[in-house]
Amino acid sequence: MTAIKRFVNASRRPGVLGIHSMDSFNIQVPDLRIANDFYSAFGLDVREEGNSLGLYTHGHAHRWGSLSEGPHKRLSFLSFGVFEDDFDMFRKHVELSGVALIDPPAGFQSNGIWFRDHDGNIVEIQVAGKSSPSEKSDFRNVSVPANQAAAPLRSRAPAVQPRRLAHVLIFTRDVDKAVTFYCRVLGLRLSDRSADGIAFLHGVHGSDHHLVAFAKSDAPGLHHLSWDVGSINDIGLGAMQMADKGFARGWGLGRHVLGSNYFHYVRDPWGSYAEYSADIDFVSADYDWPAADHAPEDAFYIWGPTPPADFTVNYESDRLR
């Protein structure tokens, strides 16, 4: 496993109002015991927290997400972080945008502001430390000199432990409306898209190529959670780590076009995916990424196996329940 790189001071684009991080998420799942098994095998630090599970990465204090128990798997809410001195302006901005504030979901308390997006998803904006990277994440492809063995014995392969949450991809009924809402209300910026099929948004204060993305479906839902690792080798080891635990269904190894990251997706027990991701493109706080609309064949992956037939099926759609 690649060592966790030092965390640098938070980057910021002066004079621009925008969220700086995907701070956390909550997902409801039918069985927390199964969820614990899956995410622990994936390499996360899963902690029991009352009637829920907290998802952490080893060696990092930030809680990237939480899992609650419910009758169906569904995305409950997304929480985004802002700088403290931007919070009051954000409250006014959200209200002036015509977005109604709501109470937090039952069982969740915070000092943030809560509202619904264009699809009815619950969104929070709260003051939080910048958890998105402020520089491109470390990536290594280590070789060795001649006359040395590079690969360890299989029995001594290190456990893969992701370093941080990279991004979240959710389904939406309307990609155009998703882009408009999240750019206008949250201050995100479009990185790339492919017609009305998919769009990728980044944070203006420095973030990966996308910290949230949207794919077209007939209903809202979660497609995948992406977790950053430090090498292609980590991705391969992670895939084997999951297969050895009985979680062999997925897609990879491959490389995306938009974002450029290497990937392997592991299907969770409810039809969504957890992604091992490495070497994603990075957008600095002082750079204006040249957003473009790409043809479908130039928007998915540049190499890798054929994806599963149901890779883009939304199993949270009411039509399929």
Q: What does this protein structure show overall?
A:
The protein is of the alpha+beta class and 321 residues long. Helices cover 14% and strands 34% of the residues. It contains four helices and 20 strands. The chain has helices at residues 32-42, 87-96, 175-186, 232-244; strands at residues 21-29, 45-49, 52-56, 63-69, 74-82, 101-102, 113-116, 122-127, 164-172, 189-194, 198-202, 207-208, 212-216, 221-228, 250-256, 262-267, 273-278, 282-283, 292-293, 301-303. A ten-stranded mixed sheet has the order 19-10-11-13-9-14-17-16-15-20. The radius of gyration is 19 Å and the shape is globular. Residues 1-7 have low confidence and may be disordered.
Outline the fold blueprint.
Elements: E1 21-29, H1 32-42, E2 45-49, E3 52-56, E4 63-69, E5 74-82, H2 87-96, E6 101-102, E7 113-116, E8 122-127, E9 164-172, H3 175-186, E10 189-194, E11 198-202, E12 207-208, E13 212-216, E14 221-228, H4 232-244, E15 250-256, E16 262-267, E17 273-278, E18 282-283, E19 292-293, E20 301-303
